[in-house]
Design brief:
Elements: H1 5-17, H2 20-27, H3 31-45, E1 50-52, E2 57-59, H4 61-86, E3 90-95, H5 97-102, H6 104-114, E4 119-124, E5 138-141, E6 151-154, E7 159-166, H7 168-174, E8 188-191, E9 201-205, E10 208-212, E11 216-220, H8 223-231, E12 236-240, H9 241-249, E13 254-256, E14 263-265, E15 268-271, H10 279-290
Parallel strand pairs: 3-4, 3-5, 8-11, 8-12
Antiparallel strand pairs: 1-2, 5-15, 6-15, 7-12, 7-13, 7-14, 9-10
Helix pairs in contact: 1-2, 1-3, 1-4, 2-3
Amino acid sequence: MSGDPSDIAAFLAVADARNFRRAAALRGVSPSSLSEAVRRLEAAMGTRLLNRTTRSVTPTEAGERLIARAAPALAELDAAVADAAATGARLRLNVPGIAAELILPDLIARFMAAHPDVSVEVIADNTFIDVLAAGFDAGIRYGESLDSDMIAVPIGPREQRMVTAASPSYLARHGLPRHPDDLLSYRLLRFRFASGVLQAWEFRRDGEFRRIAGTPSLVASTPRLLTAAAEAGQGITHQFEESLAPSLDAGRLVEILSDWSDRFDGPYLYFPSRRHMPQGLRRFLDFLQANRG
């Protein structure tokens, strides 16, 4: 392309104002910078675009033809830039199902109340995808699945644990397991990720580690279904403490193997850079900072 877009914009400003000084004042630049921009454009195109006299500045025939084509194109470019900037007033998050159910409901409701002009989209997804390539502003994941080049900001509880539980009626019929290895002889209610992988049941105590992968009597990708089956006396479930808290508090489930409970760091909001950050994400980060603790 002949001519720099910024030089074309300078030419259009002068042609519209019919005066270098007036155009310079409107653009907040010096008249000499506009004059130099027009000279560069004329040199690049090999033709005169403006007739200059001490009394007036008017477009030549070539200048008029450039105005007719370039002015609408630059106006469309300005509109495109404005439209792209407007999309910053949204927030798109890709999060694990557990975060969507237990961590985000209160946070998102309060964030929307504080920022009613930001549109929010939350997609629950337990697979490990490239959230940025998929069009999300940020994701929520646990530390072991975060790429080292990502910026990570704590969100939600800073420590969580998994709880193993069964109904009082089930334990009355089958007895209380004393060790994780005992679970292999019980009915297990297990969670399957969308990837097809069954969630591992991990246990730690005094430096000892056990991973249990017994044959399940029920497999589901919905924690609530597993909880309901456990409450109905159909086996033992192993879930986030927050998921089972209502059932435990009400006595519908009883925690077992509590001294083997696996504790781990809470989740993180992650994104690639703080430069040119979308408006929605920037506001969400400020909100998290203001509401930390």
